[in-house]
Specification:
With 153 residues, the chain is mainly alpha-helical. The protein contains six helices and no strands. The longest helix has 33 residues.
């Protein structure tokens, strides 16, 4: 490996470390909400989901070219969750644990991450109206719970 390439790798590693230091907490919180785990307890599924998303983000770090790295990591997190949603069907006790995986994904992206419905629809390959319906249904389901105290803003 040439000296120039080694320097590029070191710079890439420093940039990525700085990014993860600032963004990992919020991304982990989103992952916990997605997997339906309880926030104050160990969340192995959320951590695995986050590590996979960060690894994929790091792999494409050089190709970001002006793209927001947080946006990229969030998309990787959502895509990873969508690919493994069948693992997260049973409730785990978290505030969103009783929702379906797709409802959790839409709700977290829409309310916690403030992603526009059209962007969510494009990412998931759904019509925008379906995203709106899923979000509305999830909010109604959370409000109808007697112990409703969602961790979303």
């Amino acid at each position: 490996m040439g000296e120039r390439q080694q320097e590029r790798e070191r710079r890439r590693a420093r940039e990525f470390a700085a990014f993860t230091a600032g963004a990992a907490g919020r991304l982990l919180h989103a992952a916990v909400l997605l997997t339906g785990e309880v926030a104050d307890q160990p969340a192995p599924a959320a951590e695995e989901l986050l590590l996979t998303a960060l690894a994929r983000t790091y792999a494409g770090w050089e190709r970001l070219r002006g793209e927001d790295p947080y946006e990229r990591a969030r998309r990787e997190l959502a895509a990873g969750f969508a690919r493994t949603a069948r693992r997260h069907r049973r409730p785990r006790g978290g505030p969103l644990g009783r929702l379906t995986p797709r409802e959790r994904l839409v709700l977290v992206l829409r309310l916690h991450e403030d992603v526009a419905e059209e962007q969510i629809a494009a990412q998931l390959g759904l019509p925008a109206e379906r995203v709106r319906t899923l979000c509305r249904h999830a909010v109604c389901a959370l409000r109808s719970r007697p112990d409703a105290h969602p961790a979303l803003p």
